[in-house]
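Chain A, query sequence.
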Amino acid sequence: MATDKEKAVELAIEQIERQYGKGSIMKLGEAPARVTGDAISTGALALDLALGIGGIPRGRVTEIFGSEASGKTTLAQHIMAEAQKTGGIAAYIDVEHAFDPTYAANCGVNLRDLLISQPDTGEQALEITETLVRSSAVDVIVIDSVAALAPRAEIEGEMGDAHVGLQARLMSQALRKLSAAISKSKTAVIFINQLREKVGIVFGNPEVTPGGRALKFYSSVRIDLRRRESIKQGTEMVGTRVRARVVKNKVAPPFRSAEFDIMFSYGISKEGNLVDLGVATGVIKKAGAFFTYGDTKLGQGRENAKDYLRQHPELASQLESTIRASTAIPSISPEKGSETFSQEA
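Chain A, predicted structure.
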């Protein structure tokens, strides 16, 4: 028999539903079940593992920030490509007006189906983002970048005019409007951001991201990208080694790190990830400079092992499945675009 307290709660729920509609409040056990591992792969297996759920979360805000040429746009383009591979729709808000379609295609982005906008003002960029989010039809939206979101007053004003706090207020208002819509739409919204340095800081970290504090609070995941070293072929520089640190994570344990290669010609090296994780998990045996997977000799030296896997995609796919099974990284189902776990975490 229901107690007086339970009856009072039921009456309150009925009153709220009459006023705001069915589903405005419910018991969590009665809520529709969410897909396990509801995420979009980053294209970097090591980063998927560091994020804890196999990629960036849907229905949440993600911030990717770092110094110049640290791979922020490259990572975002690989996320768009991974979303498209599972039948999803990707949108790119090119605030910097610096989109390179050739490089995006090399990263795996399907240019024919990509939605792209090059807005004139910050307000226009965020209004376009809101419209796409509320459509509930877009899987991932990338805004590149927050630092380039110039408010209309700044665009229409004179050079040198002071516009204190305009961008921060714009971001704060936009995120207040967007947060609920993003959660309901299951759209992954990615803000790319740059780094600035505070003047006169002696102690502590002088680095700060533009756009105020609102984005830090509203982001469920924040990824800090840093260049580690250059990758060379002979004397020619062909790529960079990047370290990604998950400095905030509301969907899994934070402060995990991952390293991966970004090649100038095609973006994130999937094969480099496979070699590194294969050795770390014991799937690939390393004896001196030689790498072996089962009975297959991958080559002498890491770069040769990467090249061998690139030339044998079926073997690379088999190796990826083995690594996912040994690390419990979720694998994507192309038919449904959702993720399933290869084993229980």
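The domain at 270-331 is CATH 3.30.250.10 (Rec A Protein; domain 2). Confidence is low (pLDDT under 50) at residues 334-345.
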